[in-house]
Write a structure and sequence with these properties.
The complex is a heterotrimer. Chain A has a single domain, classed as MetI-like (MetI-like fold, Orthogonal Bundle). Helices cover about 70% and strands about 0% of the residues of chain A. Chain A contains twelve helices and two strands. The radius of gyration of chain A is 25 Å and the shape is flat. Chain A starts with 17 loop residues before the first helix and ends with a helix. The N terminus of chain A is likely disordered. Chain B is mainly α. Chain B has a single domain, classed as MetI-like (MetI-like fold). Chain B is built from 14 helices and no strands. Chain B starts with a helix and ends in a 5-residue tail after the last helix. In chain C, strand 5 and strand 6 form a beta hairpin. Chain C is an alpha/beta fold. The chains are: A mainly alpha, B mainly alpha, C alpha/beta. Chains in contact: A-B, A-C, B-C. Chain C: Keywords: Signal, Transport.
């Protein structure tokens, strides 16, 4: 950390052989870049890429309970998986879940952030409240919602009955379970999304708004023409991260529904966990993990290709 | 910069409603933590409120030790993440070298490896390193974070390139520029990332459970898990009180962090 | 401001290094303390991994404490490792290293994988060496855990399913609270009376839980797996007949159609809360919950035997719960010490405390003669029913229970099928899909073992 940088004094331009200096400099910047990245790359290599390759390797085998490979089956794990209706259901639920949670989380968080961005008395209190769900662990949050969703003594059905509506089997009805889990997830992610968006809003130069005010622009005009474009790097970040997180939802499923009813909430990471921890089928679990990895990778590449162009950097 | 009173009232109204909705689940849990299990299970209004659940939760396991462990682990991870990801983000924004974009994608790709899928190979690595029941086993695997790098990269990109050029002319090296200019300018994001890193590591459950076998370095989330049973009726009052104990430190941090955050924001470090 | 920020950043750096150092210190300090204590007292340390949370953990800790203070040669450290499957995953990874425990508690359906793992010492070796008499233990429990006359693990926390019912609701519906329904058909009739007398209350709840399904099957004398439930050979397919399997589905379907069935999905806690809040009059659940249910209900709770179809005779229940395993590759003294602790757990006094404290059965029937148990029965006569049901069980392959490493997966398959029927699905479709998947899972598990 404290080593002095050897490249510091070398920026003056010598007159001899411009080309070779340029090349040398390129090597230097590369070395420098590597130096900055080395700690991260090292840890990623050990704790992410190595396991990833191991996962890829395992996906071609059957395993025993200790996770040791027993029989080489080639692509059999993949073929079996793509033919399985349970896996189809799992993929469908995962995509629906992403669709339910991502836009809703961002819209609600943006709404809250715009509200909380006003300079009002006691706004710090509201900001703390809105951020608060970030501090609640998945385990604790799921337990809260488990109670809210309870079919008979739960708070939500209580309200429904009070206004004369039929109570709903939130976690037991296949039509509602995924929505219930989505609501829980939105609530849990709200705090963080809010915080990041608020940070983004606050870094927008107030000069822009002042000049718009002079022009007599309306509130929504300012929102559309100044706030959203200026917020785009932050929004881009939030969208990417929320999508990835939605694909990797696990804890709340484990506590709320355990993948049921009828596998409607058996999201892919939960399915991987079950295969590995309960069924000891590390081979099929690995195959599913690889498929998930590829899906998220493709989606993110698309997002970067499309999104990064539209994002406005200062 | 004053707004009309009617608009003010509208804002306060919206703020209050939203706050109530957002905070209701936690509030209910708070009330439940003082209730008797019989009242909770039968869904009746609380007949009596008491601290019994909290006393029980404290008696069940060495809670203070767990809390201390959680603090050590969460702070170590936070600091590790801040250092590693700010260094990496700096390289991605200010250094132009061959293969940079490819490496960045490689970083982003790591975010896509679901942790639950790689948890068993990772556990084997910890075992081989002899890090079971050790603080490094709980912390080091989380030091490198693509998420943090990504967050800081997005923020560093908003720092004008002219600033770097100016500093180069002034003969300032990269590391010095990183330390003296970039970090102070980006402190809002650093605080955000720090808060996020702290909270996520505080809330980790599956990994600390797997990588520890006894109480010496165990964290508080495992304690929360221990309050729940598999085959018997759960004592929800005690579980809720455990959940409240676990979230109190994070709430305090958020409250303080909020002030720090606002201070950083109002000083307008980012132009 | 910038300077201030920089210094605080440097401070943070310092803290990292301090934290890193102190972690090393504390871990080395730990070993010193351990070494010291073993030097002076020469206590043999036994590491015991368990999965008891909540009230069970309280009861277990107090037993361990009294064992440790009863003698000064052995120190048992009971350490919680998460749920059974989490604990097993961890064990599988550390088996054979220094981090492995001396003994571990594992659920009954993990029995086959433990034997297959090759990481355990069958306790039969200690029984033989010690001349320990296992015949004093509860017959039905012993039946489950012995294989070809060999004991692989020591039974510990055992429970069976029973039917809980709301006596007040029975009275209100004009039913006899002392004569609860015993067959599927009687339950259907009782349900109708209950719903008629109180439209806000449902008659019956069956948690979508594979364990309960297995029990309802065994109670008809049906096998879960072929080759005598896997006890005479490796199973190759399901062991029940279509008639036996479908009877449960048809029963549930009838209740769903009648509108007398309460659906709580896979969540047992929700179901119990519904029962305690008076939303459902009857439900099936582990006998280990009996104390809690009785204590928390604002009405009188009745406990009855598990129901069976009218045209089948009651066969009884399979033991559920967990047993204790001796880990292989540990020093002989350590294993011997762990064996001492296992024997201590079987004594009538300890079993009486355990039974009364948790609701799990006493492994050693002599415990039922202990005064603490008699007092508890005088206060809560329903508890006796759970023990009677176990002792009335007829010994057969069906009630001995199945042995196979894919059982957890099989449970999930049956749960999904049950949920389909709960939500209005057709019996034939749900049942056939489940059987197909169940057989495929057996095949897959056999293939994975490379046999």
């Amino acid at each position: 950390m404290n080593m002095s940088n050897p490249m510091i004094e070398s920026t003056e331009i010598p007159e001899i052989n411009y080309e070779s200096v340029k090349r040398k400099q390129r090597i230097r910047t590369f070395a420098k870049g590597m130096l900055f990245l080395l700690p991260s790359l090292l840890l990623f290599g050990v704790f992410l890429f190595y396991p990833l390759f191991k996962t890829l390797y395992l996906s071609f085998f059957l395993t025993n309970a200790r996770g040791e490979t027993t029989v080489f089956v080639g692509l059999q794990n993949y073929l079996g998986m793509f033919a399985s209706p349970i896996f189809h259901q799992s993929m469908k639920s995962t995509f629906l879940f992403v669709l339910y949670t991502v836009p809703t989380t961002i819209i609600i968080a943006l709404f809250l952030a715009v509200l909380a961005n006003e300079k009002l008395k006691g706004i710090g209190f509201f900001r703390t409240i809105f951020t608060s769900t970030m501090g609640i662990s998945v385990a604790a949050a799921s337990v809260f919602w488990l109670y809210l969703f309870h079919p008979s003594i739960g708070f939500i059905n209580g309200i429904l009955e009070m206004i004369g509506m039929e109570s709903i089997g939130w976690l037991t009805d296949p039509k509602w379970a995924l929505i219930a889990v989505a609501v829980t997830t939105i609530w849990m992610n709200l705090g963080f999304t809010f915080l990041v968006l608020l940070g983004g809003l606050q870094s927008i130069d107030s000069y822009l708004y002042e000049s718009a005010d002079i022009d007599g622009a309306s509130y929504f005009y300012k929102l559309r023409r100044i706030t959203i474009p200026m917020l785009s790097p932050t929004l881009f970040f939030v969208i990417t991260v929320t999508i990835i997180n939605a694909f990797q939802t696990f804890g709340q499923i484990d506590i709320l529904t355990q993948g049921g009813p009828q596998n409607t909430t058996n999201l892919i990471v939960y399915s991987i966990y079950r295969e590995a921890f309960t069924n000891y089928q590390f081979g099929t679990a690995s195959a599913q993990a690889i498929v998930l990895f590829v899906i998220i990778l493709i989606m993110t590449i698309i997002q970067f290709k499309l999104g990064e162009r539209k994002v406005h950097y200062q | 910069m004053t707004m009309p009173i009617s608009k003010k009232i509208l804002f306060y109204f919206l703020l209050s409603i939203s706050a109530l909705v957002v905070f209701a689940p936690a509030l209910l849990a708070f009330v439940m933590s003082f209730m008797d299990n019989k009242d909770i299970m039968t869904g009746s209004l609380p007949q009596s409120l008491s601290f019994d659940n909290y006393i029980k939760a404290f008696e069940q396991f060495p809670l203070l030790k767990y809390l201390l462990n959680s603090f050590i682990v969460a702070i170590a991870i936070t600091i590790g993440q801040l250092i590693l990801s700010s260094l990496a983000a700096y390289a991605f924004v200010f250094l132009e070298f061959k293969g940079r974009d490819l490496l960045f994608f490689l970083f982003i790709a790591t975010m896509m490896v679901p942790f639950e899928a790689s948890i068993i190979p990772n556990f084997h690595i910890i075992r081989d390193l002899g890090w079971i029941d050790q603080y490094p086993g709980l912390t080091v695997p989380f030091f490198a974070t693509a998420f943090g790098t990504f967050l800081l990269r997005q923020n560093f990109k908003q720092i004008p390139k002219e600033l770097r050029e100016a500093s180069q002319i002034a003969g300032m090296g990269d590391f010095k520029f990183y330390l003296k200019v970039v970090l102070p300018v980006a402190k809002t994001s650093l605080v955000t990332l720090g808060a996020y890193g702290f909270l996520t590591s505080w809330n980790m459950y599956l990994w600390p459970l797997l990588s520890t076998t006894n109480d010496t370095v165990r964290t508080v989330q495992i304690g929360l898990k221990q309050l729940q049973t598999q085959e018997q009726l759960n004592d929800w009052g005690v579980i809720m009180s455990g959940a409240i104990i676990v979230i109190i430190p994070t709430m305090i941090l958020l409250f303080l962090g909020q002030k720090q955050l606002q201070k950083g924001l109002t000083e307008g470090a980012i132009k | 401001m910038r300077k201030h920020f920089l210094t605080s950043f440097m401070m943070l750096l310092l803290v990292v290094f301090l934290a890193a150092c102190s972690s090393n210190e504390s871990s080395s300090g730990e070993t010193e303390v351990e070494a010291e204590s073993s030097d002076t007292k020469e206590k043999q340390v036994v590491t015991f991994w368990h999965s008891m949370g909540g009230a069970g953990q309280e009861a277990l800790n107090s037993i361990v404490e009294s064992f440790n203070s009863s003698q000064d040669e052995i120190q048992v450290n009971a350490e919680y490792q998460g749920e059974y499957d989490e604990s097993l995953t961890k064990f599988n990874a550390v088996a054979g290293t220094d981090s492995a425990p001396s003994m571990i508690q594992t659920f009954e359906i993990g029995t086959k994988s433990m034997i297959n793992s090759g990481q355990i010492t069958p306790i039969q070796e200690f029984i033989d060496a010690d001349g320990y008499d296992m015949s004093g233990l509860e017959e039905n429990i012993v039946n489950y855990y012995s294989l070809d006359g060999t004991f692989y693990s020591m039974p510990f926390n055992s429970s069976t399913p029973v039917m809980y019912y709301n006596k007040e609701a029975f009275e209100a519906a004009g039913l006899d609270p002392e004569a609860p329904p015993a067959t599927f058909e009687e339950i259907i009739e009782a349900n109708k009376a209950i719903v008629e007398s109180n439209p806000d209350m449902k008659g019956f709840a069956l948690q979508a839980y594979g364990w309960l399904w297995e029990q309802l099957l065994a109670n008809q004398g049906a096998l879960l797996l072929n080759n005598d439930n896997g006890r005479t050979g490796t199973p190759t397919e399901i062991g029940w007949t279509e008639e036996e399997g479908k009877s449960i589905f048809n029963w549930v379907k009838q209740m769903v159609d009648d509108g007398t069935f309460a659906n709580y999905g896979t969540n047992g806690d929700n179901m119990m809360a519904g029962f305690l809040a008076g939303d459902v009059a009857m439900f099936l659940q582990s006998s280990a919950s009996s104390r809690d249910v009785i204590d928390n209900a604002p009405f009188e709770v009745g406990i009855a035997y598990l129901p069976h179809p009218e045209d089948k005779e009651r066969q009884g229940v399979v033991i559920g719960g967990a047993s204790l395993w001796m880990i292989d590759g540990k020093p002989e003294e350590e294993q011997k010490a762990a064996w001492e602790f296992m024997k201590y757990l079987q004594t009538p006094e300890v079993q009486a405390e355990w039974h009364v404290g948790t609701g799990y059965f006493a492994i050693n029937p002599a415990a039922y003669e202990e005064q603490t148990v008699k007092d508890a029965y005088a206060e809560k006569p329903q508890l006796q029913v759970t023990v009677n049901q176990l002792q009335d069980t007829k010994a057969s392959y069906a009630t001995q229970g199945a042995l196979m490493d894919m059982l957890p997966e099989g449970r999930k398959i049956m749960e999904t099928a049950l949920e389909k029927v709960y939500n209005g699905g057709e019996v034939d479709e749900a049942y056939n899909t489940a059987v197909e998947q169940f057989n495929a899972a057996i095949e897959q598990a056999n293939a994975a073992r490379g046999e």
